[in-house]
Queue: 2 jobs
Job 1
Amino acid sequence: MHIAEGFLPASHAVGWTVAAAPFVVHGARAVTREVRENPESTLLLGAAGAFTFVLSAIKLPSVTGSSSHPTGTGAGAILFRPPVMALLGTVVLLFQALLLAHGGLTTLGANAFAFAVVGPWAGYGAYRLTRRLGGGLLPGAFAGMVLADLATYVTTSLQLALAFPDASTGLAGAAAKFLGVFAVTQIPLAVGEGLLGVLLFRVLTVNARPELERLGLLSPAPLPAPGGAA
Amino acid sequence: MNRRSLATALIVVAVVALFAIPLLLDGGTSEYGGTDAAVAEDLEAQGYTPWLDSLFNPAGEVESGLFALQAAIGGGVLGYVLGRLRGRRPAQEAATPGDAAA
């Protein structure tokens, strides 16, 4: 989902930067507020950031014969709501733009909008919908992680289509072309990411139950059933 | 092996299989080029010239190293946090005996 440095026309680069900036600023305030008001959240915030950091560093092979990055932004969005990920995700992108020549400063706005704004919100929406429909935390985490990943790549495809509409088939043709490159490759990766998310939340339900209850992800246990929490 | 560890093992196997099977099936014919690079090449083939290059463009081996560094930092922090969270448990469990089977 990294649009490379210099690959968006200047007007698009500026437009996406302006679009993403308020989310990132709001996200920075959400992170500082969370740390100030709930210092015990710092550990889990670190886990959410670290999870994206690892996953977006790894290129995974897909059935299409291409490889691509997972995103890992769904976990933090589910734990702390999406604004927090607008900041954490942008930090990851900045690291990759400056040190790895992946993405770029001129495309940071567009990439942040896809990776740190749309992805987390889509994942959070899928998580909330799953819970609303009666699904538990783990199915919700799975749906949230998968959707955060897929939505990021769909957004990138649409951003590229907007910048480079096809000469004959226009916007729709270009969108189909870029989705063909990104979205199909991404499906198995998104499923894998969903499974990793389930593993993460399984660990957290055992080891961070008080935090998950405070964040509203789990309802408090009725009474500590002796020997029951297996 | 209780049901919980069995489920964990099955999920781990599923994740590994999901990425190992494509590698095995194609018998090493695919290059597994990155999708990001594929799009960039496609645009350049259409005649688009990027108007800015990355400020710092690490050579291939250095780039792999820096990607590994990114994963290592993330993995290290994640392990530290999960370890600390896990470390709180024995103290709690000591207070409620009868839940020794982890």
Job 2
Amino acid sequence: MTNKKEDTDVKLIKHIQEGLPLTKTPYKDIGQALGMPEEEVIQRLKKLLEAGKIRRLAASIAHRKIGINANAMCVWKVPKERVDEVGKIMSGFEEVTHCYERPIYPDWEYNVFTMIHGYTDDECEAVIQAIKEKTGLNDYVILYSEKEFKKVGVRI
Amino acid sequence: MILTETDRKILHRLQSNIPLLSRPFLELGKELDIDEDTIIERIKFMVEKGYIRRLAPIINTQAMGREATLAAVKVPEERIDEVSAIINEYSGVSHNYLRKGKNKHIPYNVWFTMSAKDDEELHCRLKEIETRTGLTVRTLPTAKKFKIGVRFKIY
């Protein structure tokens, strides 16, 4: 940690990363626990969100539990010059939750990764079909998760 | 499924930022036309029953100065449990899955994400996994992000 402000932010995040108090005045209660006024808690969270250090202050949902059981990682072989165009098209699908470009290796030639979440495998595959039609891409692999060894939110 | 229509409405809304105001659940209640006490009570219920993992900041590891990567390993069938258990020991590992190609065979079958406080620590840990398992860990860090925002359609 480089300065005192950052220390306080880290302390704040560490205090709430397992969950906000589920009370009428959560920010006031966090402040009381950390010896900080409610307004400071709110302002610090606002700045962390604006700076993008916190993506969202929101619920992480156990998607399998609400019936979103299918989780397909679909990897695509995309010509370098088409990556930006294709990345935008793929991101436009609501079911595509993540879309990244990643490096290739001699034994790994798929450079664009999409995570697709759906209620069923069929729903995921319909999205893949639609992506194929919209982009004209044909070289891809659908990787389904066979087993979940670990899935936790990122903590600091 | 024991979620009510109200629960689904709340769950859907909670995937976006909750208000940074003194009484956030009162504000949410106004948006959704549900009273504050009910909102809090239903969120507690959904946390207890495990529908909501947590209502908390979703951290951008990189912006917080941390380094992260996706990694893939070709693990022989009979060593899958052993190797995945070794990977799981590391606290920076947030996801770890066994994956199988549906339309094509892919030799990489164990996929995990790891974050660490910096590049050095990250690579030191990945190296350690390689030493302990005797297997090569293929790193696939993000070159470009097009989308990250896990919000689900709640029917």
